[in-house]
Amino acid sequence: xxxxxxxxxxxxxxxxxxxxxxxxxxxxxxxxxxxxxxxxxxxxxxxxxxxxxxxxxxxxxxxxxxxxxxxxxxxxxxxxxxxxxxxxxxxxxxxxxxxxxxxxxxxxxxxxxxxxxxxxxxxxxxxxxxxxxxxxxxxxxxxxxxxxxxxxxxxxxxxxxxxxxxxxxxxxxxxxxxxxxxxxxxxxxxxxxxxxxxxxxxxxxxxxxxxxxxxxxxxxxxxxxxxxxxxxxxxxxxxxxxxxxxxxxxxxxxxxxxxxxxxxxxxxxxxxxxxxxxxxxxxxxxxxxxxxxxxxxxxxxxxxxxxxxxxxxxxxxxxxxxxxxxxxxxxxxxxxxxxxxxxxxxxxxxxxxxxxxxxxxxxxxxxxxxxxxxxxxxxxxxxxxxxxxxxxxxxxxxxxxxxxxxxxxxxxxxxxxxxxxxxxxxxxxxxxxxxxxxxxxxxxxxxxxxxxxxxxxxxxxxxxxxxxxxxxxxxxxxxxxxxxxxxxxxxxxxxxxxxxxxxxxxxxxxxxxxxxxxxxxxxxxxxxxxxxxxxxxxxxxxxxxxxxxxxxxxxxxxxxxxxxxxxxxxxxxxxxxxxxxxxxxxxxxxxxxxxxxxxxxxxxxxxxxxxxxxxxxxxxxxxxxxxxxxxxxxxxxxxxxxxxxxxxxxxxxxxxxxxxxxxxx
Amino acid sequence: xxxxxxxxxxxxxxxxxxxxxxxxxxxxxxxxxxxxxxxxxxxxxxxxxxxxxxxxxxxxxxxxxxxxxxxxxxxxxxxxxxxxxxxxxxxxxxxxxxxxxxxxxxxxxxxxxxxxxxxxxxxxxxxxxxxxxxxxxxxxxxxxxxxxxxxxxxxxxxxxxxxxxxxxxxxxxxxxxxxxxxxxxxxxxxxxxxxxxxxxxxxxxxxxxxxxxxxxxxxxxxxxxxxxxxxxxxxxxxxxxxxxxxxxxxxxxxxxxxxxxxxxxxxxxxxxxxxxxxxxxxxxxxxxxxxxxxxxxxxxxxxxxxxxxxxxxxxxxxxxxx
Lengths: 665, 322
Fold this sequence. Notes:
By secondary structure, chain A is mainly beta. In chain A, 6% of the residues lie in helices and 69% in strands.
């Protein structure tokens, strides 16, 4: 019933046409009076809108998937607010803009605050609160064969980002600035407590946060600019897992003739991290034919971690796999440091008017060195008050160096045609702790070496047609990992043509190939997409606008790997063939003289075939009708429908109706 | 080593050539913008000031007062006091006499590199353009005016649109349609919902990272700005998540697979790398031996992260189990 009311409500507003006409007449008179008045018309100080409304949601199918993908709920909301205030005279500020979207219970709340006094200061603050609910039944569904769909790696948390920056004397030559950011997450989820030979899904309490504070100065001169910044981060993670229920775990068969179970279990993490960084950025144009740019960033984060757990039940001793014991406790302390330096330098030379030569050099080097001490106590009987402690130390080393050099020339053949070509060399090495099962060496070393050819063009043969091309062809000599970039080919072609002035047609073709023919790897991955997009906006879209696009994309990956049980080679075949499209039409509804509403409708769809076929539909419609010059009514319908043939139990469909009013400033 | 030196040798050689070729160029003590604005025949074209422009273009002039560029009218830093219009359009004396559009510089008629040169004559030496030369927009001749408009007002102005998440996303997707199509897939970052913007992850002006990725903190990829728990450092690193991009395992824009993974199931994704039974140099890549005890026929072993839950790095366990 409420749904019908929400739909019908806009129609009742048509009855207000006569009132609108009166409003319009009054408005005309005011305009006429203003035109006749010798006083100049005042600029509007307050601009923007506030959308308030209510949403009704109906859904069928799997609610967990709905929440994981859409998660919109019903109720009253502040759907949107974008208010700007520019006072004619104010000592404190010259402009203020406050934006806020989806407040009042929606899973994605955002806010932005922009306050400035031109030339004196500017403060920009932003906040987002994004619900992260991820409980797709098909993911980590260890018990699916029992008919129980429990995602053992699920989350129900909220992730918040808060970012602030205050700049003094913006637009001036010397601009000091100060910033503070916080990224945090809190909530709970399900994770596994992994014991030897069995694992038990438990509730996980999640809370972590990182603070970053930074300050610096930007010096902007006509010929050069320098930014110097000093900052620091502070990280805190306190997670806990606990259970006091008897759990049989994921293991379905007895171990050495005995059932393994957990009577109670608790794990507590306490991770603390901090690090300071120094950043220097430079751009310069010492001569008209030369631009220089460079950056150096030095950081040295550290992490300290402690961990404790207590497990009671029927457990396999990690010290002696033939022993089943009633209790195990662990106590751990570890720390790690990672000095990290990254630097870039680039230059653009313009030896002739038509020629630009660009060269860049980049390096990124870091070294991770971590160690920890773990003390495990094995309690041999359920009555024992002290266990047999076993202490071990472990750690890891990871040294990474990645470098890149590139030179590229861009030549303007004419005003209509530009071509470019260049070469990039990428190299690096990595040293990491070796797998003890396959080598006696404490470390193993990987190398990266690739030669990349770069090509591109821009053609504008006629004013209404632009064609761009971007190509990269790489010959890989060495790569770190089996799935790393080796022999790659990248093609991007785009054409934009304006047929009549109001109609823009856009065609894009993109393809990326990565091949590694090494025996045993035989990687052949191709992803490509073709998109056609039409935008028709006659008279700048004042009466009608139509935007339509269709994309055909394919992902194909053939890859050899070793099947774990038996270590025989098998092939991983992944396919994703997708058709996706979007159509949005926006029509002006001429309801009377100086009185019009807007009707928007359309939606998007994606249909994929291949390894995980999926059909996802999102049609929508919206009607917007003015009530008074300062008030509009809107009503909106959206539908979400997911169907996955292989994971039919994840399908859902949902209708949602939103009705509300827009207050115009 | 030969390959390493080649680009720099070429660059130095070209810079020497360039230095020679540019002997007759104007002295560097004047601003580049003013130099760019100088006409071929300076005797004819002269600066006339914004007030003269406003005589005919009153609507534009009025609207321009709310434009951030209007600061040029009063700010001495750039040297365009009282002639802000001509900072972009060049000297207007001839145009004022003839009223012909051919006698005034119009960015709409200029080639992309010339538009950039004009805008960057003021904006080049700013923080956000560090890394511009590597960025794909600069390399593909995408001019500033593709995203920024100067004279539109209110909701049509880029000043307004580019401060709103939906405005940014619409602007980016008008060219990057193939990327926009990825966001239609069921598992995606919350961009279509307006909770995130393209510029939250990408810096359209410049970046030292591939794909114009934004940096977070000091020099980490921008992903860690929201996923700080994956930032580390960890006592036990999972090396690829440290020295390879997140896109090695994830489709960052959208995917039909849970967690935006590149594979429908987790096990093949992990095993594609963990399939070495030798180490380098005998093996060409690093990565461990497959876990021979794991029987993939059992659903217990099909999702590696059920047990190896700290897949991005652990502070406690070398096998990333806790």
